[in-house]
Amino acid sequence: MAKQVAVIGLGRFGSTVARELQNSGHDVVAIDKDASIINEASQFFRYSAITDSTHRQSLTKLGIPNDVPTVVVAIGTDVQASLLTTILLKEMGVPLIIARANDQLHEDALMRLGADRVVNPENETALKLAHDIFHTEIVSYMDLISTGSKDYGISKITPPENFFGKTLKEVGLPTYSREVKNKKDKGNGNDVIVLTIVRGLELVLIPSGDEVILRGDLLVIAGDPDTLEKAIPRST
Fold first, then answer.
1. pTM for the whole structure
2. Taking CA 199 as the corner, what is the angle to CA 131 and CA 179, rounded to the nearest 5 degrees?
3. How far is CA 47 from its chain centroid?
4. CB-based burial label for 83 (10 Å; 0-12, 13-18, 19+)
5. Domains annotated on the chain, with CATH
6. Three-state DSSP class for residue 205
7. Cα(130)–Cα(197) distance, rounded to whole angstroms?
8. pLDDT single digits (tens) 173-215
């Protein structure tokens, strides 16, 4: 299900988050106060706006928070604008505020000011944030390799409640079986592979499709980001 999200600050980090979210099917409002950046961004994003995010009225006109309940504050170098924007969004009642921090001091300040989640680009990539922003089941995401035409990554997820007691095959998650290797079975169209099940202190390596998912399991799944999006069940 598509979500409505605004990304404020279209530097390298912010633009990567915004593009990946839009590519994943979400409705993205790309925001920056620099007209030249927005002019370029308008070629890629369906919705973009030249806006000073420290002004309440400007944000309200963009549908925040009523129509756009999730905001990523990706402002990089202007720490004051980052903090003021976070305060304003909190006062406006935005349900989910995710903010970028430049360092530990900035991170601590953002958390105190009401950010629901703070991301430090030194520790978390923009791609990882874009992939797990609306997936509460995702424990972690790691970029693995790029072949030029496709990027591949690995996700560790917590199975949803309705997966417990069912086999990997029953929930449509393919394993490294002969059928998948020969492209005869793609797990309901999701060309991804379950590599491992983390079960407490044990690892179920290269599980079969008949492996039953138990409460407390973590699934380690590999694939390109687009097919990972299809394979990972979304929160509602």
1. 0.61
2. 70
3. 19
4. buried
5. 4-132 (3.40.50.720), 138-231 (3.30.70.1450)
6. strand
7. 24
8. 877 654 444 544 444 444 678 888 989 888 898 898 899 999 9
